[in-house]
Amino acid sequence: MKLAAQEGMIPGRDLHEKLANMEKLGFEGLETWGAEIWNRERELRDALANSRVKLSTICAGYRGCVLDPDPKQRQQAIDDIKRILDVAGALGAVGLIFVPIFGGPRIPDLSPLKDAIALEKELLVKILKELAPHAKAAGTCILVEPLNRYETHLLRRLADGAEICEQVKHPNVQLMADFFHMSIEEPCIAESIRAAGKWIKHIHLADSTRTQPGTGHTDFKEGFKALKSVGFGNYMALECGITGADRMKSLANCVKYLKNRMK
Predict the structure, then answer these.
(1) With 0-12 CB in 10 A as exposed, 13-18 as middle and 19+ as buried, what is 36?
(2) Are 25 and 251 in contact (CB under 8 A)?
(3) What pLDDT is attached to residue 126?
(4) Does domain 2-262 sit in CATH 3.20.20.150?
(5) What is the rounded end-to-end Cα distance, in angstroms, of the chain?
(6) Which of 31, 79, 112, 173 has a CA positioned 20 to 30 A from the CA of residue 201?
(7) pLDDT at 113 over 90
(8) What are the Cα distances from residue 121, in Å, to 86, 88, 107?
């Protein structure tokens, strides 16, 4: 398993300095934001070419929403996702982190024909089946991310995301597991990881406090043990707030804490 961090968390005046600091801290991967990333492709390629740090993942950043009732909004999301997948593949990233919808349903309830959630899931599977061949051609993955009950109504547990992956049945549509969301939604993080393990391709790290691991009560050791048991060996990226006045020191302590729990 390899440690990564989101670009905005790392101190540095520019990307080159951030990557240099990541190397000092012991990170192996960089996760960056996806909004109009096609305009940054050359910058990222040039900076990463001179660094031991690789691009792990691209986090969202697409406009529109694939589960919006407006076809224009759905198409906007699909078009942006395809462009981001192209960049992800070109730069060797594991994939694009994909949240189907934030908040409540936008599609109307058509009961007794179908309720809103049934319609959303059916539409989501159909759109992912359309996007999956594009991800494959680009050489990267779509990483479906369940959130928590306060951020979405739809996919909230790993089992929810695994259900979608099972229905899509494409190797380029995989699952992302976030320790913060799991600390809210999963009765047992380790058991949930083992149950959905065949689909897990990427990890987000944050403690129960949504700050860096080591600041809350999440049992990372048992979670990492479960990840090893399902053969996970990809990137685990920090996505969290950082406490402490000296960010480099806090990050260094966090890396040490995580590596101790990987043993």
Answers:
(1) middle
(2) yes
(3) 98
(4) yes
(5) 11
(6) 79
(7) no
(8) 25, 26, 11
